Amino acid sequence: MIIKERTKPTVMLQLEALLRRLPAQHRKRSQIEADLARYTAGYNGEKSIDYHLSFLPEKEFFILHDLRLPSASHFFQMDTLILHANFILILEVKNISGTLVFDQNFHQLIRRIGEKEEAFPDPFLQAARHKKQLQQWLATKYFNDIPLEFLVVISSPSTLIKMVTFNQSFYKKIVHSAVICDRINELLLIQRSPLLEQTSIRRLSRLLQKNHTIKLKPVLEQYQLKLSDCSTGVYCPSCLALPMNRIHGKWVCRECTRQSEKAYLSSLEDYFLLTNSPAISNKEFRSFLNIHSKTMAFNLLSASGLKHVNARKSRVYLRNNL
Ligand SMILES: [Zn+2]
Question: Which fold has domain 2-211?
Fold first, then answer.
């Protein structure tokens, strides 16, 4: 059963917002487009394993995708977490094509395509670290002594997997996505006794969801940009043209003539995605969405469904969990 669906990573939403609002000839566009393509490939890789996971018995397996939990000083993010009465399994998904050589002597993953070699961080180290962090997190919630396992899943079926030195225990932890279910069944043969009751699994999955925290990267700073580099106004939800005109209480697209009363809501979300700000004032809203009237801005913000704090002049509206 899928408890937490896989959704588009926030960083992709941020880069999409940036590309929507940077002028067509802007010098940073190609770099941002390349980064977005990389994140998209990773996301597509993660999505492609969902098909294989759909063969697991619904009532026995509780699946949570993209969990980001607080650890002692940082956060840690797991691509997929599977809860079962007998064990908890972390999946670290890698969408890397070519030939992958796992080098456990130097803790690196080398990708070969033709003559070209490229190094990636060791996914075993990553997954092992996540396992330790999850163990600590579980202990703070009084879930102790649950067997924790991890698998490194290679999502592209054409990727060739090799190891510098054959090691049985590592070998068992790398799988192509098509054989995830087989490997999970093997784990069930090892971890035979149930340690978690259904009610505990449900309670744990609620706790995990509640503690999930999104990450907003400071995208503008990352690319040495300012909010003033971005075009302002409400964009068209159909053709993305900027800005729409406000006519008789509706937003009207000058390109495709789409009319919408709520088009401003996605542009309001752009503000939060781009600025990382936890809140927006009436003035900031007017400036980002090209709205001249304070009263109209007040009415639109009031209708946005965002919670607000402070009274009158210093009122700000709080960002929803994106
Ligand atoms: Zn349009």
Answer: Trna Endonuclease; Chain: A, domain 1 (3.40.1350)
